[in-house]
Amino acid sequence: MTDQQNTQNYGSTQQQPASATTTPTSTIDDSYQHHKYVSYPGYHDEEEEEERIFSALLKEHLLATPFIFCILFSFMLLSYAFQVKFEPVDVNQLKWKEFILGASGWCLAFLIRKPLSIIFHRLERVGASIGPILLLFSIGLIEEVFRLGWLRHIALEYSDESHFLAAYWLGIGWGTAEAICFIVQNFMGVEWYRCKLYNKYTEERQEIEEILGKPLTTISAWWGVMWRTSWTMAHIGFSCWITWNCWLFFPAAIIHGLLDVVWGYCLPVFDIPATSYGTFIITLCTFLVGLALFGQII
């Protein structure tokens, strides 16, 4: 009996480790189970949440857009604060004429982008990895070439006393045309994230996300107000530079081209806050230098 009891006790001790090892195994198996999708309160599937994200993004852009127009209107009002001596010229006619001229200049430069992109994409195919950078730099250069041509026309038409106001309003027109295009492109980009059209615009979303470095849904629309302020100051400043001395076309073209390269190629590296504030500082300096050249802030 003693041997049988020892045998039973030995068997029971051998079974205990086996039962102990079953618990971790079941825990590991449970950890590999996929959890179900958990929606926000009041939503029952992913499609409804994607629609909610689209609606919130659309509302934010709708709220931010009027502020962009307020910024442009503020620059228009600012022109009345400058003391300029005019020859017998219809000032209101001069303003709106140059405003339209500036808007048309930006539109022409914008139309040139497509042929330029075709040329530089061919360079990229043959192994020129610097093609995208050259394309972006060329876009800024082309804009300044058109600006130079428009401003040389102004120099022949108006007296020296009227040059500042003409250059200022040409810059506002330039910035307004760019701002309107920016607003339209923003709403088109928001539409790409609509739930019903999500699979239709996959390539477009990937392209814009490569430029921004993140999805458009993660970027506040209020950044756009700051960007339009910066670029409007840049256009006014560059217009004043070139009007003051045509040789200032070269630094204006270089700065403009480099800013385009940063925004179109380096944004994922520097991120949006650093790029936005850096651009604002540069364009503010450009704007103030342009005013100082004509003695408007001294």
Structural class: mainly alpha
Strand percentage: under 5%
From the spread of the alpha carbons, the general shape counts as: globular
- Please count the helical segments: 10
Largest sheet, described in full? none
- Along the chain, the helix and strand elements come as HHHHHHHHHH
Helix content: over 70%
Radius of gyration: 31 Å
Based on DSSP secondary structure assignment, what is the total number of beta strands?
0
Mean pLDDT: 78
Distance between the termini: 114 Å
> In terms of per-residue confidence, which ranges show pLDDT below 50 for 5 or more consecutive residues?
1-46
Number of domains: 1
Keywords for this entry:
single chain; 298 residues; mainly alpha; 10 helices
Mind explaining what this structure looks like?
Helices cover 77% and strands 0% of the residues. The protein has 298 residues and is an all-alpha fold. It has one domain (46-67, 90-293). It is globular and about 55 Å long.
List the helices and strands and how they pair.
Layout: H1 2-31, H2 46-78, H3 91-125, H4 131-157, H5 163-191, H6 202-212, H7 223-244, H8 249-265, H9 267-270, H10 272-293
Helix pairs in contact: 2-5, 2-7, 3-4, 3-5, 4-7, 4-8, 5-7, 7-10
Summarize the entry for a quick read.
The protein has 298 residues and is an all-alpha fold. The protein has one domain (46-67, 90-293).
